[in-house]
Design brief:
single chain; 142 residues; alpha+beta; 5 helices; 24% strand
Length: 142
């Protein structure tokens, strides 16, 4: 091997090393779990439009489609599976332990999620439910 071949080989190895470092830095600073798939304000407003079967989230044997916000209002006085349902959705969207969803109806309040401390974003809204009342929902994100 002559001197020009060794130089070309070393040049190629340095180039590959620089590319590998650049890729590693890019992957490190673009963590997929920090990306938000949905704006929190949009998520809260979508709760008034999302429909589920009543029997999927409660003990009531009725396959009628109901809005999630209605089931949340029912959940404030009765224990249902809507808390687990919402925690799974929010955990996939914003990451585990990075949110607290609080909703209240009449005199009862429910918290979903276990984020503690500082939050960087908070969104609150009142949503009309089918019986004419209003459920107040707040979503805080870290």
């Amino acid at each position: 091997m002559n001197r020009e071949g060794v130089t070309a080989f070393v040049d190629c190895m340095v180039f590959l090393l620089v590319i590998m470092v650049a890729i590693a830095v890019t992957i490190t600073f673009t963590n997929q779990s920090d990306e938000q798939d949905c704006d929190p304000d949009d998520f809260i407003s979508s709760l008034s439009k999302m429909e589920v079967r009543l029997s999927d989230l409660t003990d009531i044997e009725d396959d009628t489609l109901v809005y999630v916000a209605d089931v949340m209002a029912f959940d404030t006085a009765n224990d249902t599976d809507v808390r687990t349902y919402l925690e799974d959705i929010l955990g996939k969207m914003y990451g585990k332990h990075r949110f607290v969803l609080t909703y209240s109806y009449l005199e009862n309040t429910v918290n979903v999620g276990d984020m503690e401390g500082f939050h960087r974003f908070e969104c609150s809204r009142g949503i009309r439910i089918s019986n004419g009342g209003t459920i107040y929902i707040s979503l805080r994100l870290m």
